[in-house]
Amino acid sequence: MSKLTISEEDFRKFREFFYRKTGIQFDGGKRYFVDKRLIERIEATGSESFRSYFTMLRFQASGEELQALTNAMTVNETYFFREEYQFECLVNSILPEIVKTKKPGSTIRIWSIPSSSGEEPYSIALYLTEFWKGIDSWDVELISSDIDTDILNKARNGKYSQRSIQHLPKDLLQRHFHKTGDGDYQISDDFRAAVEFTRVNLAEPADTRPYRGFDVIFCRNLLIYFDDLSRQKAAEVFFDALNPGGFICLGHSESMSRITSLFRVRKFPEAIVYQKPEAR
Amino acid sequence: MSTPQKRILVVDDAATVRMYHRSILEGAGFEVTEAINGIEALEKALTRPFDLYLVDINMPKQDGYAFLRELRKQDIPQTPAIMISTESESRDRSLAYVAGANLYLVKPIKPHELLANCRLLLGLAGGAE
Amino acid sequence: MAFVKRSQTTTVGQDERGYSRDFEGLCAELEAPNPTARRWAARDLAAHPGAAQVLIARLEVEPDAAVREAIMISLTEIGDAVTVQGLVKCLRSEDASLRNEAIEAMKHLPDTVAPVMAGLLADPEPDIRIFAVNVLESLRHPDVEQWLIEVISEDAHINVCATAVDLLGEVGTEAAVGPLEALKRRFPAEPYIEFAADLALRRIRDEG
Predict the structure, then answer these.
(1) pTM for this one?
(2) Which one of A46, A123, B61, C27 has the fewest beta carbons within 10 angstroms of its own beta carbon?
(3) Cβ contacts (< 8 Å) between C12 and chain A: which residues?
(4) A138 at interface of C, judged by CB pairs closer than 8 A
(5) Chain A contacts of B35, Cβ < 8 Å?
């Protein structure tokens, strides 16, 4: 059992610091959760007390511990239709605005990063197929990238556990997946062929330079784990990758307010997203 | 209170300043929300409009002027806004009004000064003291 | 289904990267009419250690916010004494966004900012002293608390002290207790100072 405790003022001080750094706000109801994670990190780093841990967190040159703590404070799991309101926003608000500016016959380009094991790009493909009428009249190019080649192979294979697909509507699951011998579900070949999986390191200009001309970028729950400067540089990459007027969607606990003022805040009925300004 | 509670957005990068304003305004029965810079303020304002904005000028990522200009462009153009700065020179004052502020206050602000001006802009009794 | 795949092709146009990418070419491109070209030049100049001077000069006249942001990132990566000098100059700008961008860039440069910090905190302009305290907000340097204690002990301007006392709520230790008490006595009729100093004191005393 741990003897470490987090006092009320410690909690408040930490809460303000974490909010300034990440934009995530914990209210008093999260106290138990926050204390538990903090104590875990204090012990993991061999710190003597909250005070010494907090000083390290605040002054550490590498910023590593802030990243480790952010990881502990957020649930970073991926599954089909996670944060579904953003896909609703895509088909109901974003794409209708995009197609207004497009010539018939041109292609709508979407970039999903990080691909992880593929749940997000496939969710986009499923959503467009099922819920967007425009899919009959527009070509869509869907590219999904990750830094990890192993996870990309897993994504290309498109095989998922029950836990990954639990939020998918039954009829959709039946139409587009088949059950494999070991009880998993594999997405149909049509969808596996619909997504182009590529390896990209966002911090490597030679990797990101070819990524241009996108209309929408999904980058959810990634930038929050980067340090300040890396985040800002990633935002620059996205700025270059987007067409003027193009949109970027971040995760629900992320905000451009901690990263950059390059993008405009746009409020749609379903979500807040960010838009690259039109060329002046 | 017979009238619905007025909602105020306090925009300042300094946590202590936000807490100070919150304690004064909540003590007078207002509902307070905080934002750390102009971008976060805009996200909150567009999600659910406020009755009054209390905006610092110097903030990282997006300053108070840029926030007000964008707010006035995107919607709710008639919502009153108070600009707050540590600088008292007239250049900041005029820039604040050009950006769309209704009032310009200089830090440090005394509680009665803050409350009187908020009430005034909200059209509540007790505005002028 | 209407999903299509194209082979990945590099689509960087000639207009963006038309000049040679050596130092002179990039400096010329930093003046190009196309803002995208200027952003690319600003970014590629980060690889040239001597580029701070030319980037700072461009910053002062650059109208495009996206180009300015790219210049700031490159300056942060170069981070030499020339960079810091240039950023200090930006603190005196009439342009609030330029000032704030300079403050943010300086937060990332503890080792090169530290030697000029004492001078900034003694600047005759209270605004400059406030901006210097703003830099300390996220500066990862062991002297941050000491600088803040000196400010609240010596600075005559209430708003400089007010900005410093806010940060002491986060980084203050026992060493700040006496100076915080003294600050309250120095500005007895100021509710904000009392509020902020009491908050900082509560946090320091409450800790294990």
Answers:
(1) 0.92
(2) A46
(3) 209-210, 212
(4) yes
(5) 257
**Tokens at A5, concatenated:** 């405790």
Contact call for A13 and C170, based on CB within 8 A: yes
- At position C17, the amino acid (one-letter code) is R
Residues of A with catalytic function: 37, 146
What are C57-112's pLDDT values in tens digits? 999 899 999 999 999 999 999 999 999 999 999 999 988 889 999 999 999 999 99
Residues of C in contact with B15 (CB under 8 A): 166, 169-170
Task: Evaluate whether residue B128 is within a structural domain.
Answer: no
Question: Is the residue at B13 inside a domain?
Answer: yes
Q: What is the CATH number of domain A85-275?
A: 3.40.50.150
Run of H or E residues at A111: strand A107-112
Nearest by CB to residue A267, choosing from B36, B47, B61, is B47
* Nearest-by-CA chain A residue for B39: A257
CA distance B39 to chain A (A): 5
Domain count, chain B: 1
- Domain interval for residue C44: 16-108
**What's the whole-number average pLDDT of chain A?**
93
CATH 1.10.155.10 fits A8-73, yes or no: yes
CATH number assigned to the domain comprising residue C39: 1.25.10.10
On whether ipTM exceeds 0.85, the answer is yes
**Do C166 and C147 share a domain, yes or no?**
yes
